[in-house]
């Protein structure tokens, strides 16, 4: 039986090699995360915990001036990402995508040796593991590694983001709403101007995810934005706005634009 698939995203603008029937397979979360990067200048983007690279690929496919580095610890997922870059369908993106095997919780010199260089990136995106201790465990070891959360996960990941982002750089992440306190705490004085958007399946239903952006070194206050509604009432089709974000036709721009220095 086939143990992997080649899947098209953004209506065929890029393709990914992904595990079949095991591991983490990319979907809407990765596409919404990628939509948070809205930058018309040449920029360096780090995708932490990239998996097969869906979010990073989506950024590169939409932003022709973006150079994206995919950081992933699981060797098997690193191999999927590298093979995805080598696909003929991705030739137009290949020279702007790099894969590095790295533990994103490393510190200081070890972090730099892994390619996580201080003050280097303009954007950091992340879709951290989101299952907490009370969730049912999956027997799939590869998926468990991608989904298992530790108590201090956000502190470690956001600490790294704060180190490798240039001043004025943007952190973007997607997570469960239940993690909002941990994320705000981890951002601390590292980031300001935080904007949080709850993602609701339908009008009147509880949020299932949230989008978060913040700016390194900003002192602006936190903003809760209007919720993003996935589906129209009594329909399984995505709303027009969400469909555009999912297929790379639009970015989900911050309310408060931040002007960073180029170079």
UniProtKB/TrEMBL annotation:
It comes from the Bacteria. Pfam families: MTS (PF05175). Transmembrane segments: none annotated. Residues 32-178 form the Methyltransferase small domain. Gene3D superfamilies: Vaccinia Virus protein VP39 (3.40.50.150). Keywords: Methyltransferase, S-adenosyl-L-methionine, Transferase. PANTHER family: TRNA1(VAL) (ADENINE(37)-N6)-METHYLTRANSFERASE. This is tRNA1(Val) (Adenine(37)-N6)-methyltransferase.
């Amino acid at each position: 039986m086939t143990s992997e698939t080649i899947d098209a995203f953004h209506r065929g603008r890029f393709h990914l090699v992904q595990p079949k029937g095991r591991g983490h397979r990319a979907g809407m979360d990765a596409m919404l995360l990628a939509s948070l990067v809205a930058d018309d200048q040449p920029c360096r983007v780090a995708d932490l915990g990239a998996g097969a690279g869906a979010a990073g690929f989506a950024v590169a496919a939409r932003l022709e001036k973006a150079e994206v580095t995919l950081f992933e610890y699981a060797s098997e997922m690193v191999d999927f990402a590298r093979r995805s870059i080598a696909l003929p369908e991705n030739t137009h993106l290949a020279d702007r995508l790099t894969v590095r095997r790295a533990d994103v919780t490393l510190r200081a010199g070890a972090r730099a040796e892994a390619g996580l260089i201080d003050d280097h990136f303009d954007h950091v995106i992340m879709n951290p593991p989101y299952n907490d201790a009370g969730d049912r465990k999956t027997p799939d070891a590869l998926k468990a590694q991608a989904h298992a959360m530790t108590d201090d996960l956000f502190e470690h990941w956001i600490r790294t983001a704060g180190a490798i982002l240039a001043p004025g750089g943007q952190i973007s992440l997607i997570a469960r709403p239940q993690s909002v306190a941990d994320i705000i705490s981890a951002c601390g004085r590292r980031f300001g101007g935080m904007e949080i958007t709850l993602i609701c399946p339908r009008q009147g239903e509880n949020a299932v995810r949230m989008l978060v952006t913040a700016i390194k070194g900003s002192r602006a206050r936190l903003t809760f934005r209007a919720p993003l509604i996935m589906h129209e009432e009594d329909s399984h089709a995505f709303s027009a706005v969400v469909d555009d974000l999912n297929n790379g036709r639009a970015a989900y721009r911050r309310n408060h634009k931040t002007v960073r220095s180029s170079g």
